[in-house]
Write a structure and sequence with these properties.
Elements lengths: L5 H29 L6 H7 L4 H7 L3 H15 L14 H6 L16 H8 L6 H23 L5 H22 L5 H15 L5
């Protein structure tokens, strides 16, 4: 008496996973709409909807929730960096895809969520800032590998130039609410790649 069967335990786990997913989805919406620091845990719980007890069972602190949100974004394949690992595209096209409009029907253009998070948590020792920094370092490493594969001159320097263009374009797209602002940076990226390619210059 009083003990759970295997089936009952599995059902509880499934409900828990569903609640966690709803919390992350609600947090993603609210963080995008109003920023991370402006979003309270009570708001997230109400939007999920889950009880505050359930919310804190999954995420003990707001920092835990923010980190889980950023990890979920990184794993979703919907961030700027994700196009760099698309194996069905050649290296040059992967790089140029950094400048495409985001695949979203949102009415408001969003910038890079990792840059946004780092800006809201400016202390380099913050776990949130550190995670955002790691994602941006991953981005430049992936671009370095791609331009090296293309045989470009000075791949490390070229990769830094390309990711600076991509991040800058994403930020300006958000500020100007112009989702396809990346077209300007794409033109500059094409010029950089052309000049650095073998047999040019």
């Amino acid at each position: 008496m009083g003990t759970e069967t295997g089936v009952e335990k599995e059902a509880v786990q499934r409900r828990g996973q569903g609640a966690r997913g709803r919390v992350l989805a609600a947090a993603a919406r609210l963080f995008a709409e109003q920023g991370i620091t402006a979003t309270g845990m009570e708001q997230v719980a109400a939007q999920a909807p889950v009880s505050k007890r359930t919310l804190y069972l999954h995420f003990r602190t707001k920092s835990d929730l923010v980190l889980a949100h950023l990890r979920a974004l990184a794993e979703s394949g919907s961030t700027l960096e994700s196009v760099l690992t698309l194996e069905d595209l050649d290296p040059r096209e992967r790089i140029l895809r950094l400048f495409d409009p985001p695949a979203t029907d949102a009415a408001v253009a969003r910038g890079c969520p990792f840059i946004d998070a780092a800006a809201e948590f400016p202390d380099p020792k913050s776990p949130i800032h550190a995670y955002a920094r790691a994602q941006k370092l991953l981005m430049v490493r992936l671009v370095t590998e791609l331009v090296t594969e293309l045989g470009c001159d000075e791949p490390e320097a070229l990769a830094e130039q390309l990711v600076t263009l991509a991040d800058g374009a994403a930020s300006r797209a958000m500020v100007l609410n112009e989702a396809d602002y990346g077209r300007h940076a794409r033109a500059a990226a094409e010029t950089l790649l052309a000049h650095a390619s073998p047999g040019t210059g």
